[in-house]
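Weekly structure sync, notes
Attendees: PL (lead), two postdocs, one rotation student
Agenda item 3: pending single-chain targets
PL asked that the sequence for the first pending target be pasted directly into the notes so everyone works from the same version. It is reproduced below exactly as submitted, 247 residues in total.
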Amino acid sequence: MQTIRITTSQNIDIDYEVAGAGERMVGYIIDVGIFVVIFFTTFMTIGLSGSINHSQDMLIGIVVLIIGVLYVFYDLVCETAMGGQSVGKRIMKIKVVSLDGARPKFGQYLLRWLFRIVDFTLSGGVCGLICVAVSDKSQRLGDMVAGTTLIRTNPRTKMNNIAFKPEADDYQPIFNEAARLSEQDIELINEVINNYIKSRNSMLVYNMAKRIKELLNVTPPAEMNDMLFLQTIVKDYSHIIAQADVL
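Predicted structure, written out during the meeting:
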């Protein structure tokens, strides 16, 4: 499986498995299939309601317009609202990511959407497929312009190997400072741990642990190695946030 290395804003290099052309195509077919089902279901409902007359002609025109607008803006709206995924992408466990390691901005989603005209509409999908095949980061033209690509979201390891969950409500966090981290910080820590489990690149863990220690100004116990420190930070954060939600 092809991988790409993305350097995050914290200067941490993380390897991702790139989504292949087949996964992209199946995701696209699923998304198109959703509208095909909506289209035929709607028109069957209209047809069963009675004979075709002038008012029904107008209704059909309005329905076609609404479905058309939804189809045109579907990818842009879904990727923006669903964190880089459409329904098809979520089913195929792939998503859009920015090459700078950050969550894609709306402007990047917009560029990807605009260049669908070239990648799919004008070229019948040929341009998009060729670009994905020849690009070293498996990018279609819209991805190249927007600085994005598609990666697989299905990890090789189970989540309980990445982050621990508090065993009970009376769990006492070791690092209360973990509450100062953001959800994106925790996602990045999980990415680093996941990548270490796959690649055994200990420098990933060392660099991430060093930055978290500096950010929170904490010193772990001598017997706590960097991996355990990161896992504990995630565990403490999860517990503190969960308790705050209860309150």
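Discussion points:
- Residues 21-48 form the longest helix (28 residues).
- The radius of gyration is 23 Å.
Action: rotation student to compare against the earlier draft before next sync.
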